[in-house]
Amino acid sequence: MISCQPSAKTIGKIEVSYWEKWTSFERDAMQAVVDEFNRSQDKIFVNMLTVSQIDQKAMLAIAGGEPPDIVGLFSGNTNVYAEKNALMPLDDYLKEAHITKDDYIPIFWDMCQYHGHTCALPPTPATIALHWNKTMLKNAGLDLERPPRTIQELDAFAEKLTLRDKDGNITQIGFMPMEPGWWNWSWGYFFGGRLWDGGERITANAPENIQAFGWIESYTKKYGVAYLNSFRGGFGNFDSPQNGFLAGKVAMEIQGVWMYNFIDKHAPGLQWGAAPFPTVRRDMPPTTVAEADILAIPNGAAHPREAFEFIKFVNSQHGMELLCMGQRKFTPLRKVSREFLARHPNPYIKVFIDLAKSPGAFTDPPIGIWNEYSDEVNSAIQKVWLQQGTPEGILGDVQARTQKKWDREVRRMKRLGEM
Length: 419
Hints:
Elements: E1 14-20, H1 24-40, E2 44-50, H2 54-63, E3 70-74, H3 77-83, H4 91-97, H5 106-110, E4 113-114, E5 117-118, E6 125-133, H6 134-139, H7 151-161, E7 163-164, E8 170-172, H8 207-223, H9 225-232, E9 252-256, H10 259-266, E10 272-275, E11 287-296, H11 304-314, H12 317-327, H13 338-343, H14 349-357, E12 360-362, H15 370-385, H16 391-415
Parallel strand pairs: 1-2, 1-3, 11-12
Antiparallel strand pairs: 3-11, 4-5, 6-9, 6-10, 6-11, 7-8
Helix pairs in contact: 1-12, 8-9, 15-16
């Protein structure tokens, strides 16, 4: 277990242990909120510790009966943890604090729910969008201020923006579906698909998902998987000037609201833009993956009421804007000050806020087997990328395996009266 020696700051106060995953400036932003909370009253002292692989270590601590009082997880952990009865429902505390769903952009409130209970609150949200290099578009004879709006336009732009040397090696590419490869499970949504029908049916092999996988396959067929992998293999770490987009090797990329931070750090002179990622049809609403970090109280926490006092402070307008400005994100709250928006350094911050409010915003399916399901989809997309089968066949296999697992889960939930 991670421990901390008592200090003069904690004498006479209830010490609340808080495990968080953040490092660098993101940790510093939350530490500023922790410090302000600790100064604001004389009964509670929050001690924040950075913990790597937090989703695994926190679950082990909870199972072992020695959890922290607060844990900072990812929104995708909500259902997995709640399904294992690892999180304390916050409903009574929220009622006392007069915190309701009306305080939040709906999608961020919804991702903290499990079977009618609020199991966490979202401190920092994110949406993803198309990022493009304006200089590269201009050099290719394209309008630098007008990004592609459909998948078909994206493909046409990508072709114009891709360059090869005399030996056929790619030296610059317009777009690659596998770069950065963080949301492989989501591509079907940009084609109008879904991975789950909201009930008893997994929909991995829905026609729209097959179409999306066929689109991914078209890139390997057009550009050559060996050439693509060799080109991508030359990129450095994401958080470095050798990042493919930051180095001017990739003209267009799907990335999150946090990308501004890395542009500012590693490529401050980059001329770039951000807009909703293209969809297969113009009549579709702006489409995006919505994510959030979450703050939760583990079951078995020693100081749950004091832990909630801190979570409540973070979820105040002041606390949230302090944190989200420090991390250069937007807030999940409906109410936001004019000063926050006026001072925000990301020139496209409103793009990401509007995407969160779009009816086309979506999250990973809120099902307890999501970890296994996402692993299946990631494996499937790798097979498509390497042309190791057809999209129909590969997704058909995912459908069969995942539906079998989901059937077992559905039967279990029905026995417990949870469905």
